[in-house]
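Entry for the shared binder. Reason: the reviewer on the internal report wants the predicted structure included alongside the sequence.
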Amino acid sequence: MTRSIVLIINPASANGSTAKAWPGIVSEARRLGLRVEEQLTEAPGHAAELARAASEAGADLVVAVGGDGTVHDVVNGLVAPGGAPVGTAALGVIARGTGRDFIRSHAIPTKTKDALRVIADGTIRTIDVGEVIAQGDRPAGRRFANASSAGVTGAIAKRANEGSKRLGGTPTFLLAAFQGFRAYTNTPIRVQLDGRPIDVTASCVVCAIGHSLGGGIKVAHGARPDDGLLDMVLVGDVGAKDLALNVHRLYTGTLGEHPEITHLKGLEVIVTGRTPLAIEADGELAGTTDATFRCLPGALRIVTA
């Protein structure tokens, strides 16, 4: 059956090159026999509105054409607070950003033509979505497709988003990480994992659906996006020097071997502390602590190879 798709295109993605590339993407999609409608985003959050409208109108697939931030917005258009689906569409992704962390956890190709073939012929399956409700953010919270975190990672996300990404995903985020850790002071926090309290001085708490963030850092090695649980990674009292000595662990999936790293699973994580900690969700700033992170099992349908 020929699929009906709506391409939600962020023309500013890939350092603005998508503004020139998107007509070719539309042409290739039609060549593959897809029924295509294209919509261009005009501002942050616009992709969520477009995705919601497309799904409610009966599209088979809503395709995010952009970076992880575009995927984040589209997912917030497809999944309502608490995990209820909005309309009937599944998610497709054509990665045009620098981080590309969402597609690392799924069988989604990096090349546009290959990704379009998956959108045309791939399998639709169900995965989990995360939800974070934080101070100073949306009252009903926001959904995250890949990971959300509190602490130095919020400062790192801010640096990465404000700087140039022309170096590519890994160098951009690694540079932001070193700068962020150098300027950050770890503070005492309380983490409650499914009601179990953990009091610790920490640099960050990551709640993940996928296994990577920050341009390929394997923060939650072995995470499964369909197991109905969050992978909570608690990074203890470490700084820039410790980061420099353990760069190899970031990309080899061996972070869990570090004595200051705790990797646990659960449905709900609550983070509180005397000092407000910045929150990021899929690399987008999302308020501060106090914050509650939840897994929404099976809340999203996606198309994969």
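Summary line for the report: The mean pLDDT is 92.
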